[in-house]
Amino acid sequence: MRNIIFIILFISCKEKTNIKVVNKTNSIISDITILSQYGKKKKSNLNVNEIYLFKFDITDAISKEDGVFIISYKLNKKKITHQFGYYTNGEIPKKNTNIIIMEDEIILDKSSK
User: Fold this and answer.
1) 15-112: which CATH architecture?
2) What pairs with residue 22 in β-bridges?
3) In angstroms, rounded to a whole number, what is the distance separating the alpha carbons of residues 65 and 82?
4) pLDDT, tens digit, for every residue of 7-45?
5) Cβ contacts of residue 73 below 8 Å, gap of 6+?
């Protein structure tokens, strides 16, 4: 009976990470994409002071590779790309990531789930 309960609990666990993006610029950000081996998430526009939450669920992921998350977006017609959130052996970061986009920098903040 204990083995059955353990299997049910193990199967019902979901591995996920959330990435919150905040636009703290004075312009609309366009073509926001976050890419990893777990998939690609997109948002067409992010208004000034708008917050958007990208959710990555890797419960069914099979790959056990190393990698990073990559965010790309356009600000004032310039494409910007930034890598963050390194993971190893397919293990996603155990913390959520907050990305604050400023006019001339990106601030990364990791928070507990």
Assistant:
1) Sandwich (2.60)
2) 51, 100
3) 20
4) 444 444 556 789 999 999 999 999 999 998 878 999 999
5) 29, 30, 31, 32, 33, 46, 79, 80, 101
Task: Tell me the pLDDT tens digit for each residue of 48-92.
Answer: 999 999 998 766 665 677 888 999 999 999 999 999 887 777 666
Q: What is the DSSP letter of 91?
A: P
Boundaries of every domain in the chain: 15-112
Give the pair of three-digit tokens for residue 23. 């636009």
- 52 strand-pairing partners: 21
Distance of CA 97 to the CA centre of its chain: 7
Q: Which of 18, 12, 65 is nearest to 37 (CA)?
A: 65
pTM: predicted TM-score of the whole model, two decimal places:
0.79
